Amino acid sequence: MFWGTESCPERPARRYSERTSLRSPLGAIVTNPYGQSEQRVASVRRPSGVTAILAGLAALALAAALGYLPVKVFIDYGIDDLPRDTKIVLGLYLVAALFLVIGALVAFLRAVTGAVLLLIGALTTIGAVVTEPVLLYPGFFTQFFTAIFRFEPDDAFVRVAATVGGPVVLVLSALPGTFRYLRYQPGEYANAPQTHPEGSHPPAGW
Is 165 in contact with 123 (CB distance < 8 Å)? Predict the structure, then answer.
């Protein structure tokens, strides 16, 4: 018997008429009845920039508070007359403020480097507020933090901002959503190539 008569088996015909779907990172690859692949590129949603923007704004506010203390002390007392430990502590506050400002500006330009700088600035902030009682008030570590949250010392708000703001910026900068937003490039998958697997064409004479 020849194919095309009423007794022709239907199984081979169904073999090429069925549509199959394969998943890929770019979407679904669909095989049409003739064995040719058709790639459907899935739309890529733009990541949310909420955490990145909040990290940048928090970093700018924190940098303003941290930079206030060393600038005020340097203006009032100069640099040469200050004890070595005091210079170290004030230097840490100033370096942290610089990292936070630069990191926030770079993050607003949507570069991953901004998040890295924010992480460094946040860690430096935490290091500065922890180093201050260790170097300047040895033996009074707990009392130091109790006093600053009561706003008893001068410029206590700077230490409170460092104690609270440092971890906040650190968490916001380290969140996966922040890095996804900074890495996202519009139109990244717009020109995705179509793939045609080997052997996808029907046999000769079909």
Answer: no
